[in-house]
């Protein structure tokens, strides 16, 4: 029973996606093309996020810790 | 303490302007002005309550703002459709895809194209995809329930095939059958049938030549009596009544002030007349007054000669907005500035007012204050044609100079008889109270349906007493989805999108009828509730605006007493 | 040479003088220049001030303004004010103003107005659908009857598609502006009917009138346009061209020269719109109109428009042609989109009338015979001139010699009409809006021939008109 409700809900979500993106009125091949484009875009966003976000987070972390935390030795050395 | 027209400008009417939308040019401009209306972005609903002075009854007209997110998503939707439209046109151009639409003859391909391709971009790539929601053929009386012919399309709405099956008893929320006089049984059709067997269907001549039947004269006397005017004249088509009579009334050197949402027939008539046309914001009296003042003070452009005459052209009920004209104010302005008033009651005659005499009756005004009373027989009277009523001089002039009277075939006798019978019924001259009951029923239906829709959380437009109820859909895909889902549930609705509305404000429109019983309305409401959840069109962020069914506001009452 | 030398010399002198002038002089001149500038500016300022009216002045202006009356008064005895009253059906036998007459005025060419079959079909439709449609075609105003009528009309006219309008006048008046827009060029006959004129006006196109049925004049205009096009080929490539003609002119009773028109069409690449309100159901072996009369292929005409208010004796009108052309009107024809659809009983009547036309093609031959007979019978009446060709069922009788003014001509013709009406023949003057017509036709009496009129009645009418003319004009 619960599974059916989840399934219904997912179908409903898909329907909303169709309506909002207007792919509801597209012909099937157009619709699949549209899905492909959306999926590609989303995948690329996810992939770039996966590749770049950790690096950026680390860099940001380092940057802020430099600003607010104690200065690491290396920078002190550099300054000297 | 009668508030004279000189007070008009001074009354606080800020709200009246803040929902001003889509500028000149038939409302084709993008409509998202409402969001940037400024001062009252906090109050999502503009309630305009005019209880003061000129109004004898509360005047509640609501136009809720388009939610920002919805507006953005709507534009995104149009963007997607436009992109795919370009793609398809590209494929068609390079003959990769078969062209469905008809093309010109081979022999005439070197002629200048009959119509420009880009004109049809919208038709081909947007309208065509959801075309099944329009032109649905029916095969019974367009009463409260209607039988529809089932049709299918195997090529995505380029062509339709009739399956031969009939979808029975669809609830009809689309026909302008306000008082339910469209019937195939009963006294009206019997009367029409009798006249049909006596007179035949055609007339084969014009009014001025040999087509002026005794029936026409009878009808005109009755219409004049019904409207409370001196004289009236009937014409064969409502559209043509406007487009062929306005040119007879005004001409070069005259000024027409026209509401921006006026019907195409009024626009055409104004254009054909050769008069200068200026457009005021929809139902906005400040805008109208400014135009009137400027017109008289500055005269005609360039020559600065005074205008010969000024004609204000308004409709009683606006068919896309469901709003009612602010007639008391218009009349006050018209009197103050000595102009003339042309009132098109196509949707209001029969449908408004305690005795069904239209918007003049609704506000309790004197019909003599309106110079030209125009209306149609198509809607409330369940027939066809139009009329113009007014002073005897006006009608005499039209009898001589109306384009319709000289060049167009007159009304078909059985149609005339249907009009006569239904007007007599409304006036109670048939010895029954059916007419009165129907008017009562319609106004109850209207209030009930509007209240329930509001409670459900739909955004609906217009005056609380208008039997035309626009329900906002906004997104283009939802136009098609709404029409299809409702038909699946055996309810016939009208959906409207661009260019009849501003591009963003696509809507569904319900026309209530006295023929709708409470059960029918309840079924429709139940299904609407479901579809509303399914399509997520309950946009209203003002969930509970329980419409107070008070007949008169305390304050209103006092002021009208003065 | 010397002059230019002199000029140069003056210039040098000026510069020298400028250097040599005392400082106070320069300052003075500077002030003068500034003064002039100030004067100039203050002048414009004053102009602005003058147009800025005070509220009080505005009030006064508003107070002063007196508009013209909404309509000018109409004299009580205006000839067009008092209509003939027809009691009962306007069929073959008609009662006008209480007098029984034989109808020579209504366009009921085939006598279908009181045909029992047509009436029965309409009755059946009435008991199924009621009277009104309560909506435009788009919004539940499309009935199965409409679809059937469109299909039948298309089949009858042997075209791909037909579209029906709920009003005859609105048909061609909506069809023209659906295609012809601002900047396009329309060549139109001077005698074109009022509906065409209004359609042209609504289209806001560039309109060129050619002399009535004068193909040479039309070709002259087309040639002129061709030369114009060569000057500006860029513009010519987007300028649509149309010829709008009537099959059988209601104002003159003439048949258009269709074969020549078709030749001109291909020569100058112009599209032809044909208004067949009078010729549909009259000309041709099967009543298909002027195309059949001349044996022209339907495809050579871009659009045929006709009303169903004459031969078919119903109400409304239709356009037919190729789908490419006609389909465009379903979204662009104003009278189609924005008007309630045709009451189904009228559509059903039109279908039945079409059936009758298809079943008795002989009827058109009979009508032709009668037209010819009437035409010869009316010829040679002293004082009256017959206008129109012998195959036209609507003939015009004009005064041979005008009395001087239009009004007095009209009065004379009215006397003739009244004379006949008192003796049992119903006639009517052709009515026009004098000020609105582009080329106002001369006043005339219109005589309409129908198949129902017997030879005896035709003779009676002709001799009565002759008698009337003799008694009135002499």
UniProtKB/TrEMBL annotation, chain A:
Gene Ontology cellular component annotations, sorted alphabetically: endoplasmic reticulum membrane; serine palmitoyltransferase complex
PROSITE patterns to which the protein is assigned, alphabetical: PROKAR_LIPOPROTEIN
InterPro entries the record matches: Ser_palmitoyltrfase_ssu-like
Record membrane topology: Multi-pass membrane protein
Pathway: Lipid metabolism; sphingolipid metabolism; Sphingolipid metabolism
Listed Pfam families: SPT_ssu-like
Transmembrane segments: 9-26, 32-53
Localization annotation: Endoplasmic reticulum membrane
GO terms of molecular function: serine C-palmitoyltransferase activity
Gene Ontology BP term (one): endoplasmic reticulum organization
Key words, A-Z: Endoplasmic reticulum, Lipid metabolism, Membrane, Sphingolipid metabolism, Transmembrane, Transmembrane helix
Top-rank taxon, per record: Eukaryota
Recorded family membership: Belongs to the SPTSS family. SPTSSB subfamily.
Role this protein plays: Component of the serine palmitoyltransferase multisubunit enzyme (SPT) that catalyzes the initial and rate-limiting step in sphingolipid biosynthesis by condensing L-serine and activated acyl-CoA (most commonly palmitoyl-CoA) to form long-chain bases. The SPT complex is composed of SPTLC1, SPTLC2 or SPTLC3 and SPTSSA or SPTSSB. Within this complex, the heterodimer consisting of SPTLC1 and SPTLC2/SPTLC3 forms the catalytic core. Within the SPT complex, SPTSSB stimulates the catalytic activity and plays a role in substrate specificity.
Subunit comment: Component of the serine palmitoyltransferase (SPT) complex, which is composed of SPTLC1, SPTLC2 or SPTLC3 and SPTSSA or SPTSSB. The heterodimer consisting of SPTLC1 and SPTLC2/SPTLC3 forms the catalytic core of the enzyme, while SPTSSA or SPTSSB subunits determine substrate specificity. SPT also interacts with ORMDL proteins, especially ORMDL3, which negatively regulate SPT activity in the presence of ceramides.
UniProt-recorded name of the protein: Serine palmitoyltransferase small subunit B
Organism of this sequence: Eublepharis macularius
Phylogenetic placement of the source organism: Eukaryota, Metazoa, Chordata, Craniata, Vertebrata
TrEMBL record, chain B:
UniProt keyword Transmembrane helix, yes or no: yes
UniProt subcellular location: Endoplasmic reticulum membrane
Cited PROSITE patterns: AA_TRANSFER_CLASS_2
Cofactor(s) the record lists: pyridoxal 5'-phosphate
First-level EC class: transferase
EC number, as in UniProt: 2.3.1.50
Main location: endoplasmic reticulum
Domain of life: Eukaryota
The protein's annotated pathway: Lipid metabolism; sphingolipid metabolism; Sphingolipid metabolism
GO biological process terms on file: ceramide biosynthetic process; sphingosine biosynthetic process
All residue ranges annotated as the Aminotransferase class I/classII large domain in the record: 168-527
GO molecular function list: pyridoxal phosphate binding; serine C-palmitoyltransferase activity
A cellular-component GO term for this protein: endoplasmic reticulum membrane
Similarity section: Belongs to the class-II pyridoxal-phosphate-dependent aminotransferase family.
Protein name, as recorded: serine C-palmitoyltransferase
Source species: Eublepharis macularius
UniProtKB/TrEMBL annotation, chain C:
Chain ranges passing through the membrane: 23-41, 162-180
Protein name: Serine palmitoyltransferase 1
Domain Aminotransferase class I/classII large stretches: 100-456
Annotated family: Belongs to the class-II pyridoxal-phosphate-dependent aminotransferase family.
Gene3D superfamilies the record matches: Aspartate Aminotransferase, domain 1, Type I PLP-dependent aspartate aminotransferase-like (Major domain)
UniProt KW keywords: Acyltransferase, Lipid metabolism, Membrane, Pyridoxal phosphate, Sphingolipid metabolism, Transferase, Transmembrane, Transmembrane helix
Record-level GO BP terms: ceramide biosynthetic process; sphingosine biosynthetic process
Reported function: Component of the serine palmitoyltransferase multisubunit enzyme (SPT) that catalyzes the initial and rate-limiting step in sphingolipid biosynthesis by condensing L-serine and activated acyl-CoA (most commonly palmitoyl-CoA) to form long-chain bases. The SPT complex is also composed of SPTLC2 or SPTLC3 and SPTSSA or SPTSSB. Within this complex, the heterodimer with SPTLC2 or SPTLC3 forms the catalytic core. The composition of the serine palmitoyltransferase (SPT) complex determines the substrate preference.
Cofactors (names): pyridoxal 5'-phosphate
Pfam families per record: Aminotran_1_2
GO MF, one annotated term: serine C-palmitoyltransferase activity
Signal peptide from the UniProt entry: none
The EC number(s) this enzyme carries: 2.3.1.50
Keyword Zinc recorded: no
Top-rank taxon: Eukaryota
Reactions this protein catalyses: tetradecanoyl-CoA + L-serine + H(+) = 3-oxohexadecasphinganine + CO2 + CoA; dodecanoyl-CoA + L-serine + H(+) = 3-oxotetradecasphinganine + CO2 + CoA; L-serine + hexadecanoyl-CoA + H(+) = 3-oxosphinganine + CO2 + CoA; octadecanoyl-CoA + L-serine + H(+) = 3-oxoeicosasphinganine + CO2 + CoA
GO cellular-component term (any): endoplasmic reticulum
InterPro entries (alphabetical): Aminotransferase_I/II_large, AON_synthase_class-II, PyrdxlP-dep_Trfase, PyrdxlP-dep_Trfase_major, PyrdxlP-dep_Trfase_small
Pathway(s) the chain acts in: Sphingolipid metabolism; Lipid metabolism; sphingolipid metabolism
């Amino acid at each position: 029973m619960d599974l059916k409700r989840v399934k219904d809900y997912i179908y409903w979500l898909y329907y909303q996606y169709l309506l909002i993106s207007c792919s509801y009125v597209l012909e099937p091949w157009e619709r699949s093309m549209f899905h492909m484009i959306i999926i590609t875009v989303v995948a690329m966003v996810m992939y770039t996020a996966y590749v770049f976000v950790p690096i950026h987070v680390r860099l940001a972390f380092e940057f802020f810790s430099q600003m607010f935390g104690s200065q690491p030795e290396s920078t002190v050395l550099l300054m000297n | 303490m009668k508030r004279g027209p000189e007070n008009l400008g001074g009354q606080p009417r800020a709200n009246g302007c803040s929902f001003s939308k889509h500028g000149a040019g038939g409302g084709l401009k993008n409509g998202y002005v409402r969001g940037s209306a400024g001062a009252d972005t906090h109050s999502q609903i503009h309630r305009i309550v005019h209880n003061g002075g000129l109004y004898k009854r509360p005047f509640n007209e609501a136009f809720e703002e388009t939610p920002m997110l919805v507006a953005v998503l709507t534009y995104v939707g149009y963007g997607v459709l436009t992109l795919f439209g370009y793609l398809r046109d590209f494929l068609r151009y390079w003959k990769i895809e078969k062209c469905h639409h008809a093309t010109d003859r081979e022999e005439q391909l070197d002629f200048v194209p009959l119509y420009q391709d880009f004109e049809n971009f919208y038709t081909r790539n947007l309208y065509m995809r959801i075309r099944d929601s329009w032109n649905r053929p029916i095969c019974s009386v367009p009463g409260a329930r209607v039988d529809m012919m089932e049709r299918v399309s195997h090529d995505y709405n380029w062509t339709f095939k009739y399956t031969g099956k009939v979808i029975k008893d669809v609830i009809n929320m689309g026909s302008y059958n306000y008082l339910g006089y469209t019937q195939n049984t009963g006294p009206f059709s019997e009367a029409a049938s009798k006249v049909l067997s006596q007179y035949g269907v055609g007339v084969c001549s014009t009014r001025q030549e040999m087509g002026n039947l005794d029936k026409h004269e009878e009808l005109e006397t009755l219409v004049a009596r019904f409207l409370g005017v001196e004289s009236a004249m009937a014409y064969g088509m409502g559209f043509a009544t406007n487009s062929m009579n306005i040119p007879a009334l005004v001409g070069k050197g005259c000024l027409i002030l026209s509401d921006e949402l006026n019907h195409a027939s009024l626009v055409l008539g104004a254009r054909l007349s050769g008069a200068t046309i200026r457009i005021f914001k929809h139902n906005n009296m400040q805008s109208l007054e400014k135009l009137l003042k400027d017109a008289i003070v500055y005269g005609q452009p360039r020559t600065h000669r005074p205008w010969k005459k000024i004609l204000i052209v308004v409709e009683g009920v606006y068919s896309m907005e469901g709003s009612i004209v602010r007639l008391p104010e218009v009349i006050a302005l018209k009197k103050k500035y000595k102009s003339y008033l042309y009132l098109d009651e196509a949707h209001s005659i029969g449908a408004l007012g305690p005795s069904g005499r239209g918007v003049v009756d609704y506000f309790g005004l004197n019909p003599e204050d309106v110079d030209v009373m125009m209306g149609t027989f198509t809607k409330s009277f369940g027939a066809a044609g139009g009329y113009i009523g007014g002073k005897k001089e006006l009608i005499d002039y039209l009898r001589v100079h109306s384009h319709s009277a000289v060049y167009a075939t007159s009304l078909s006798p059985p149609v005339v008889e249907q009009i006569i019978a239904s007007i007599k019924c409304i006036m109670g001259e048939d010895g029954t109270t059916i007419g009165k009951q129907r008017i009562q029923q319609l106004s109850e239906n209207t209030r009930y349906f509007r209240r329930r829709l509001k409670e459900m959380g739909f955004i609906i437009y217009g005056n609380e007493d208008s039997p035309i109820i626009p329900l906002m859909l906004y997104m283009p895909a939802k136009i098609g989805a709404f029409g299809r889902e409702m038909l699946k549930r055996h309810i016939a609705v009208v959906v409207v999108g661009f260019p009849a509305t501003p591009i963003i404000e696509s809507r569904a429109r319900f026309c209530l009828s006295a023929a709708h019983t409470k059960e029918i309305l309840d079924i429709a409401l139940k299904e609407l509730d479901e579809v509303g959840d399914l399509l997520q069109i309950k946009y209203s962020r003002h969930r509970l605006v329980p419409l107070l069914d008070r007949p008169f506001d305390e304050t209103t009452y006092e002021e009208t007493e003065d | 040479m010397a002059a230019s030398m002199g000029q140069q010399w003056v210039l040098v002198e000026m510069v020298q003088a400028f250097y040599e002038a005392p400082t106070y002089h320069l300052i003075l001149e500077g002030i003068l220049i500034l003064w002039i500038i100030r004067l100039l500016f203050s002048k414009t300022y004053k102009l602005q001030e003058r147009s800025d009216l005070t509220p009080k002045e505005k009030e006064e202006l508003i107070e002063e303004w007196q508009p013209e009356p909404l309509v000018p008064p109409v004299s009580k005895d205006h000839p067009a004010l008092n209509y003939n009253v027809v009691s009962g059906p306007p069929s073959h036998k008609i009662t006008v103003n209480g007098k029984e007459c034989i109808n020579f005025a209504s366009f009921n060419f085939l006598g279908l107005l009181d045909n029992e079959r047509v009436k029965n079909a309409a009755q059946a439709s009435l008991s199924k659908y009621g009277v009104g449609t309560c909506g435009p075609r788009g919004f539940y105003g499309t009935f199965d009857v409409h679809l059937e009528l469109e299909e039948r009309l298309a089949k009858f006219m042997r075209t791909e598609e037909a579209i029906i309008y709920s009003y005859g006048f609105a048909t061609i008046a909506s069809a023209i502006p659906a295609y012809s827009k601002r900047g396009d060029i329309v060549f139109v006959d001077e005698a074109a009917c009022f509906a065409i004129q209004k359609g042209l006006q609504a289209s806001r196109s560039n309109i060129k009138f050619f002399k009535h049925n004068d193909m040479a004049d039309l070709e002259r205009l087309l040639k002129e346009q061709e030369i114009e096009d060569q000057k500006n080929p860029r513009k010519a490539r987007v300028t649509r061209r149309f010829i709008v003609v009537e099959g059988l002119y209601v104002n003159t009773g003439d048949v258009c020269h269709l074969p020549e028109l078709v030749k001109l069409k291909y020569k100058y690449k112009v599209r032809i719109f044909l208004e067949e309100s009078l010729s549909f159901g009259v000309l041709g072996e099967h009543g298909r109109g002027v195309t059949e009369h001349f044996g022209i292929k339907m495809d050579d005409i871009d659009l045929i428009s006709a009303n169903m208010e004459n031969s078919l004796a119903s109400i409304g009108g239709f356009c037919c042609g190729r789908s490419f052309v006609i389909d465009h009107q379903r979204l662009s024809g104003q009278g189609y989109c924005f008007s309630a659809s045709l009451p189904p009983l009228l559509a059903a009547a039109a279908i039945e009338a079409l059936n009758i036309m298809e079943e008795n093609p002989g009827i058109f031959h009979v009508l032709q015979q009668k037209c010819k007979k009437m035409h010869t019978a009316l010829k040679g009446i002293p004082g009256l001139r017959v206008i129109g060709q012998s195959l036209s069922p609507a003939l015009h009788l004009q005064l041979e010699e005008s009395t001087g003014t239009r009004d007095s001509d009209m009065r004379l013709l009215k006397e003739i009409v009244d004379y006949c009406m008192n003796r049992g023949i119903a006639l009517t003057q052709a009515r026009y809006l004098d000020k609105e017509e582009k080329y106002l036709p001369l006043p005339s009496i219109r005589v309409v021939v129908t198949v129902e009129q017997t030879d005896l009645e035709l003779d009676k009418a002709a001799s009565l008109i002759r008698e009337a003319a003799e008694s009135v004009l002499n």
